[in-house]
Amino acid sequence: MKFTAEQIAGILDGTVVGDPNVEVSKLSKIEEGTHGSLTFLSNLKYTPYIYTTEASITIVNDNFEPEKPILTTLIKVEDAYEGFSKLLEYYDRIKSNKSGIEQPSFIAETTKLPENIYVGAFAYIGNNVQIGENVKVYPSAYIGDNVQIGDNTTIFPGGKIYSDCIIGKNCVINSGVIIGADGFGFAPTKDGGYSKIPQIGNVILEDYVDIGAGTTIDRATMGSTVIRSGVKLDNQIQIAHNVEIGKNTVIAAQTGVAGSTKIGEHCQIGGQVGIAGHLVIGNNVKVQAQSGIGRNVKDNEVLQGSPSFGYSDWNKSYVYFKNLPKLAKTINELEKKVDGNN
FRET partner for 171 with CA separation of 20 to 30 A, picked from 93, 198, 251, 339? Predict the structure, then answer.
C-alpha cells in the first residue's frame, strides 16, 4: 500500500516541503531510513540524522528549519510525534478493515447485527446483544447475553465479555481480556468454609477505553464496575468488583486494584502496583512502580514504596536505607567507645 506526501499531509493537516508526489510504502526509524520509507523527527537529539536519512518522507514539527541541505521531503505538523501516532492509527485501521460474518460462528436469533460489522470464525454472540456500526469481533471471541457494544469498537481474538456488560464507542479489547467475570465475593460460614456471594452487577466501559491483553475486570456485586472515558489499561491487570477508574487514567502492567476502590481522573499508575480495597485515590495522582497503596490519596500526590509514602521522602529515606550496614557499624563502634570510657 503506497501513499504520497500530499496524501499524508492531507490526513495530518500538514504542509509539504519538497516533492508532494514522492511515495512511501513502509515505516522506518530516522537513523535507519531507506528509499520508500516514512519516518519522523520529534526528539531533538536525533536531529543530525535528518541530514543523512534516506527516508523519502519525514514528519517534523512545524517550527523545524533545516540548517543544511536534506534529501528527504518534509511534512510539517504541529506535533510530529502526535502526527506520526495518528498516521499509525490510520494505517492500522485500513490494514484491519475486515467486514462480513465468517463461518462457523454463532449469533443468537434475538440479536440483530448492523450492516457494517466483522464477526470472525468461532465467535459467539448471545441473546439480545446490541452492537453498533463498524464493530469488529475477531475469531473465538465471546459476547454474552444482553451485552451492549458501541460503534467502532474492536474485540480481538479470545476476548470475553460476560452478560449484561456495556462497552462504549471506539474501545479496544485485546486478546485474552475477560470483562464481567464474578467478583471475588465469599462469606465465611460457621463450619469454617466459605459461601459464595452472588455477583449480580455488571461492568461499564465508557468511550475510547483500551484494555491490554490478559487483563480482567470483574463485575460488581451490585451496581457497576466503571471504567471512564479515555482510560488505558496495560496487559495483565486485575480490576476487582465495584472499582471505578476516572477518565484518562493510565495503569501499567501487573497492577491489581482491590474491590470498591475509586481512582480519580488523569492518574498515572506504574507496573506491579497493589491498591487495597475501599480507598479513594484523588485526581492527577502518580504512583511509582511496585508501590503498595493502603490509604486514601489526595489530589496530585506522587507516591513510591510499599507501603507507599511521599516520593521525595522515599528517595531521601532510601539513601539511609542502603547505608544501614555502615550506619549500624558506626553505631556499634560508638557504643564500644562509650562503654570503654565508663
Answer: 198
